Amino acid sequence: MELSLVEGLGPRGITNMVISSLDKEDKTTQKLLKDYNTDNIQGLEAKQEFAYIINKFQFYYQAFKNGDISKEYFYDQANKYQWNLEDSIYLSKIPLKNVIRILTGKKGGDNESYICIVDANQNGTYEDDVIRYIPKIRSVVEENIPPIAVELDFYRSGSIRQHTINIIPSFGYQGNLGISFFSFYLSRIKYKGQRFVICSDFLDRESVYIIPDMPYFSQIPRSRRISETGKVVLLNDTLNVSYNKYNNTIILTDEHGELAEMEIENAISAYKADVVNINVPYKDIQGNNLLNDENESLDKFKNRWRLLYFWSDNCGPCIQSLPTLNKISRYYSKQLEIIGIVDIYWEKENFIKILKENKVTWPNIETPKDSQIRQFYAVKSYPTIYLINPNGEIVKNYLNTAELEDVLKNYLKN
Q: Whole-angstrom Cα distance, residue 65 to residue 71?
């Protein structure tokens, strides 16, 4: 069976990695990590770039195959990290999105707080990415900080697959920049009527854990891990385990070498609270319309279709989508109401200027501080869009702007 990439706390809790700035990498690696243009990022002082390579074996292998590094340098890296070169058959010769790039700095006039921009879509620029404050925290879970969705490529069974993973950059021990990952690999099985989960850390792929199913993971002892081959006892039965980290597959056999009889269940998010299901009632959001200071709420527009648009004034793609939303608002004016829920990063006056310049007339409410509302809508990136029907049920979640017009055609008639 194949393990699925899911969101939540992995076998060792949150996997946090401390990363180095680019200027501390060796010259060859710096050359491979091509320069980004940071001059066009205005209002950011004391800039510094960081890069975290998700799979160094893949990173240097694709550079070797493309002629960007010598055979000798690649072999040196393989010896340094103890890679088995025979495993290169599991790697892609085609370059993958395999590096998380982060630009840090300070906002002009603020000498205390650091901010960062993550190249979330790995398109070689920070211009279309969201600016975030970097928290100085002990626990990203306790602080309830929204993660950043980053696009990555993985090579599985001869094909490239795209995944989005959630991360939180933070300053931790001795002021180093770290990345907390909210993804791991998981499959659920039912053996003799009891559920078990098979899981592996997102970064530490050397081993898997097979444990009774539970709502959340928290620091499974390393003594429970199984490497490429091993044994596990399930309900007094000893099963043989064969795990392939490159194909992301696992095989369980009985004492006779026959496949163990079990039911494989779909892997779902381990963090169920992070996913807003469809066909459930919405939760009301109240606040003053930033355009005219009048009180607004979702309840005010009962018996109409409602489009919730969570966005921020420092999100380039959000602002670029405003003309599309204006067009939709005019076309479906008799049936649909758009309500913006905005996280104001810059000054409020600057945000109002953005609304006026883009001729936005639909109401915009500042992001509520109510933690229950934040938890219910689970906004992890901007923009995040929900569609609510006249009966007050969420019928579409996590829409993107490009598909909005086609989706609305299926639900609304002008």
A: 9
